[in-house]
Design brief:
The complex is a heterodimer. By secondary structure, chain A is an alpha+beta fold. Chain A is built from 18 helices and 40 strands. Chain A folds into 5 domains: 111 residues, no CATH class; 163 residues, Rossmann fold (3-Layer(aba) Sandwich); 98 residues, Sandwich (Immunoglobulin-like); 236 residues, 3-Layer(aba) Sandwich (Rossmann fold); 100 residues, Macroglobulin (MG2) domain (Immunoglobulin-like), CATH 2.60.40.1930. The two termini of chain A are 35 Å apart. In chain B, helix 3 links the parallel strand 3 and strand 4. Chain B has a single domain, classed as Rossmann fold (3-Layer(aba) Sandwich). By secondary structure, chain B is an alpha/beta fold. In chain B, helix 3 packs across helix 4. The chains are: A alpha+beta, B alpha/beta. At the A-B interface, helix 8, strand 19 and helix 14 of A face helix 3 and helix 7 of B.
């Protein structure tokens, strides 16, 4: 209809612009228009005895509109649009050949629909106007001669890579347009900006035609699992699982995590929102690489049962992080923290206790000389630890340089610092002043008398219910109850107001009924900080049954949290530890000296061992603009598990090493990208100047893509005065006036 | 008639004594009622000298051997030293505790004197065992010779039937947490003034012994054949020799700091 009325298709108007061929200057047209209006106004003022008021205005409007239309036509309006020259341009047709295109859609598959559309006139229409090149794509781009050469067998969909390859292949060729026939279910992480920018620079429009359903009627999907990639032996981890479902509202699903087939944890989930996040807590095993499979039990009638499982890797590091605990006075909390941590073979607690004004008692030291002078004064000495606990000790006990070190411990070294409440702690110890005051997750009260030797009950906050530090029992509801039943603390301290960004995990109730922060955490610089506003959690040990492990568990979890993520001097990583039908790996290493300053002149290598024991060494190069960062790109050619040992050295000095785990899982990606991603296709088309089409609109595509500035094009001017719409409008105006006059008896 | 009355009075006296021993009414409990109470006696502190009140055995007329020996002067004089010589926040006044309720779990360090005469009930033994395994610490002192040792063990072996009592090695951290106490000697009680003997009964050789937990930490520190309590109590007396008092203080302080660090 649009093309009948306006003579040309919408694409022509979208691409072109209106011009007036009469050559009159614009001001002359305005003058004439004004004159016409004046004449019409004069006419309206002339005596028309039988017409008054609104009727005269209506007739005036109709006549003025008609005159304006005539004036417009005198200007000779025309459409100026760039058009591809026939048979001189290439149009590339890209057919998605990934496994998701084999999904059934009605009686056919998506690929079958593509073939039908192509053979139904689209190919013929394109061939009649352009030189045609056919491609199929999945992992990469492949030139084909006929649509039949596709088989929906590719295990991935990399639209961005296909377009990038096409742009490279067709560099210097007159590519007029790209026709992309796909479900848009990209498994390569989307289309990068550089590719889109290149297409825009070359003015190549991508016209996307989307195939496949956009949602399932009944399906449950494990859309993602967030999990720490490193852990200490025996640690408990929380996995944040993202579930999507349709058609199972208020149903139940079971989420299970397995390590080599052994069930580590399992829980039932009630399906509420169409997308929801759930946590699963489990204990990871001994040191070594762990391939964990998270799976949702299949529900009856699921349309895609293959998107219920995800694999994640956890590197349980064979190390015993050291924590330094400085206590300013003998107290029971100190003893019971030590006892709790002694039972944790994944942590090593070194303590310095001020027994008298002039004596220190050290425990857990590596050699008799260690910490002989007390709290470290040099960064390399302090930064050998990954966690730091400051007990009941005044800030004045530390030199200004040592206070700077404490801040740098979290900020630069990336360690964890825990502040405890006590007679000389927090506000009582003058800790509100910088530099350490900046580190604290609370704004301490600016007064004394904040420490009270009175009992206080504790309770979890909403954030604490989600925190692994506070998880004493399962399930989460029982954990909340467990906290409520804990014996009261022996003492408490007013910690002040939590800073923005800090998380209050637990609070206490003072004898006068006030709710005060008890356990507060926050990230600071590269590290993390926690505050526990009491020195009296020892009652959780003494006032509960011997078999009760609450006190031990809490302290082990708190101190493990403190050192989790605290890096060594060499810290390796990769953005995607689990490659789903991918092979490209980016290895990255941060290398720092003993004071944890970036090392720019290190030699960094990755010794990679593949799934069948094959070995390869890759050298990492310094990254631009990131001091101390080295990286390399590498390809995991085969499916299976890889380990990359990253070693850094400088001259003869070995700086350190780290281990990065990788896994390539094949035949997985397409399971999770089986629906049409219309949004991606529409965005791609819009950003490159193309259009999104449904298969039913295929007949228009060949003609509409003619209007393009890419390739070899010519600018054409098409008259618009003879548009059917103009005549219809003119006739309608005159007929409407006649009809009104006749009704009002003014003919 | 007179004989009947005499026998009745005798029986009544014996019954009263037995009642006292079993249920906790003790002769020394009221000895110092007229003593001035220190102004900071109710201060809330981290450490409190907790003296264990326990039932004693009867073996003769009169009353010998009980929880309140040296009470309260030894306690208060000793904590003065603890306050002066360490950073432990200590209350000036002791706390009397017993094993008859869960209140004991609020006092992680307890001192028991003259345990050669204690006679714990089964329930008290169970509670003491639980207390020690949870992390509590018991120091026992001022009992001498074979008979008292056997009587002490009669109750302790019901607390820990499965754990041996061992002699403490001088290298044990308990002798080094604050003071290095490699050179130790017998600390006599006040009887040294008039007898001139360091020992009592047949307890000639001082023995520092202990019961350990599964992690090798001392739970029960046993000072046998010595009287640290008297040394604390009479440390301010010119007739009591200073070296004994000094050693008694050092051992006591080491035991407290050990209990607060292990």
């Amino acid at each position: 209809m649009f093309e009948f009325l306006f003579k040309y298709p919408p694409a022509a108007y979208a691409k072109g612009h209106i011009v007036f061929l009469a050559g009159w200057p614009a001001w002359s047209l305005i003058l004439v228009l004004l004159a016409v209006v004046l004449v019409a106004v004069q006419w309206r003022r002339a005596p028309h005895t039988r017409l008054t008021g609104a009727r005269r205005w209506a007739l005036w409007l109709l006549q003025t509109a008609f005159l304006a239309l005539l004036l417009l036509l005198i200007g000779r309006p025309a459409l100026s649009v760039a058009t591809l020259k026939p048979q001189q341009n290439i149009v590339a047709v890209l057919i998605d050949d990934s496994r998701s295109m084999a999904e059934p859609e009605g009686e056919d598959t998506r690929l079958g629909q593509v073939r039908r559309v192509l053979s139904g006139g689209l190919l013929e229409g394109l061939r009649s106007r352009f030189q045609l090149r056919l491609y199929s794509f999945g992992h990469g781009l492949r030139r084909i001669q006929k649509p039949d050469e596709t088989g929906a067998a590719e295990q991935a969909t990399h639209i961005g890579e296909a377009l990038r390859s096409l742009a490279a292949e067709a560099a210097g060729l007159p590519v007029g347009a790209v026709v992309l026939l796909s479900d848009g279910a990209d498994t390569g992480g989307g289309i990068d900006r550089d590719t889109v920018a290149e297409l825009r620079a070359r003015r190549i429009p991508v016209h996307a035609m989307g195939f496949g359903r956009e949602r399932y009627d009944r399906d449950l999907e494990l859309a993602g699992v967030e999990l720490a990639t490193r852990a200490l032996p025996g640690a408990r981890l929380t996995a944040a699982a993202r579930l999507r479902h349709s058609g199972y509202s208020r149903g139940c699903a079971r989420l299970t995590v397995r390590d080599s087939g052994k069930v580590l944890a399992s829980r039932e989930i009630v399906l509420t929102a169409s997308e929801q996040s759930e946590s699963l807590v489990f204990a990871v095993g001994p040191a070594g690489p762990h391939r964990l499979e998270f799976a949702l039990q299949k529900l009856d009638g699921e349309q895609n049962p293959h998107n219920n499982a995800i694999v994640r890797l956890v590197n349980v590091e064979d190390l015993k992080p050291r924590i330094l605990y400085l206590e300013g006075e003998p107290r029971w909390e100190f003893k019971f923290i030590r006892r709790a941590v002694e039972e944790d073979h994944g942590l090593q607690l070194t303590t310095i206790l001020r027994t008298t004004e002039n004596k220190l008692y050290r425990q857990g030291i590596s050699d008799p000389k260690e910490l002989e002078q007390g709290f470290p004064a040099k960064p390399e000495e302090l930064f050998a630890f990954r966690g730091l606990v400051i007990g009941s000790v005044e800030s004045g006990y530390f030199t200004p340089a040592q206070q700077e070190l404490i801040r740098d411990f979290a900020d630069r070294r990336g360690g964890g610092v825990l502040f405890l409440g006590g007679r000389h702690a927090l506000a009582e110890g003058g800790w509100s002043r910088p530099p350490v005051g900046e580190l604290l997750p609370v704004a301490l009260p600016e007064r004394k008398g904040t420490f009270h030797r009175d009992r206080a009950r504790v309770e979890l906050t909403a954030a604490g219910r989600e925190s692994l530090i506070c998880r004493l029992t399962e399930p989460a509801e029982a954990n909340v109850e467990r906290w409520q039943k804990l014996p009261a603390l022996a003492d408490y301290q007013e910690a002040g107001q939590p800073k923005p960004g800090a998380l209050v995990l637990a609070q206490l109730e003072s004898p006068d009924g006030r709710r005060l922060p008890l356990l507060v955490t926050q990230n600071y610089g590269h590290g993390r900080v926690a505050l526990l506003a009491t020195g009296g959690s020892w009652r959780w040990q003494m006032l509960q049954e011997l078999s009760d492990q609450t006190h031990e568990m809490f302290w082990q979890q708190l101190l493990r949290w403190l050192v989790t993520g605290a890096p060594g001097q060499v810290s390796g990583s990769t953005p995607l530890p689990v490659l789903e039908d991918e092979s490209r790996v980016i290895l990255r290493a941060e290398v720092r000296d003993k004071a944890f300053r970036p090392l720019r002149d290190a030699r960094v290598e990755a010794r990679i061992v593949g799934p069948e024991g094959q070995k390869e060494t890759v050298w990492l190069e310094p990254a631009a603009h990131e001091p101390g960062v080295y990286q390399a790109e590498w390809k995991a050619e085969r499916a299976g598990g890889y380990s990359a040992e990253i070693l850094a050295s400088r001259g003869e000095e070995q700086i350190g090493r780290d281990m990065v785990l990788l896994r390539r899982e094949d035949g997985v990606a397409e399971n999770f990208h089986a629906l049409q991603d219309r949004e991606l296709l529409q965005t791609l088309a819009a950003e490159t100047g193309g259009r999104y089409y449904r298969p039913s609109e295929a007949s228009r595509l060949a003609k509409e893509i003619t209007y393009s500035e890419a390739g070899i094009s010519v600018r054409e001017t098409h008259d618009l005065w003879d548009m059917p719409l103009v005549f219809l409008l003119a006739l309608s105006l005159r007929f409407a006036e006649w009809l009104l006059r006749r009704n009002w008896g003014a003919v | 008639m007179r004989l009947t009355l005499l026998c009745g009075a005798l029986l009544l006296g014996i019954s009263l004594l037995a009642f006292q021993g079993r249920f906790g009414r003790f002769r020394y409990e009221v000895d110092n009622d007229d003593a001035p109470f220190p102004p900071d006696g109710n201060e809330k502190t981290e450490f409190v000298f907790a003296r264990l009140r326990y039932p004693s055995v009867r073996f003769a007329w009169g009353f010998r051997g009980n929880w309140a020996t040296d009470y309260w002067k030894a306690d208060r004089q000793f904590v003065q030293g603890v306050r002066r010589l360490t950073r432990i926040h200590t209350r000036s006044v002791e706390q009397v505790v017993d094993l008859d309720s869960d209140e004991i779990y609020n006092w992680p360090w307890i001192y028991a004197v003259e345990v050669g005469h204690w006679d714990l009930t089964d329930a008290q033994c169970r509670r003491l065992r639980e207390y020690l395994l949870r992390g509590g610490f018991l120091m026992v002192d001022d009992f001498h010779g074979t008979w008292e040792w056997e009587n002490f063990m009669a109750s302790l072996s019901r607390v820990f039937p499965d754990r041996p009592v061992v002699d403490l090695d001088s290298k044990d951290p308990i002798f080094h947490v604050l003071y290095d106490l490699d050179e130790r000697f017998q600390v006599p009680g006040i009887q040294y003034w008039y007898s001139g003997r360091l020992y009592e009964k047949d307890g000639v050789e001082p023995r520092w012994r202990a019961v350990y937990d599964d992690q090798g930490r001392v739970m029960v520190a046993i000072c046998h054949n010595m009287d640290l309590g008297d040394a604390w109590e009479w440390a301010d007396h010119p007739r009591y020799p200073e070296p004994y008092a000094s050693l008694a203080y050092r051992i006591g302080i080491n035991y407290i700091i050990y209990a607060m660090t292990h």
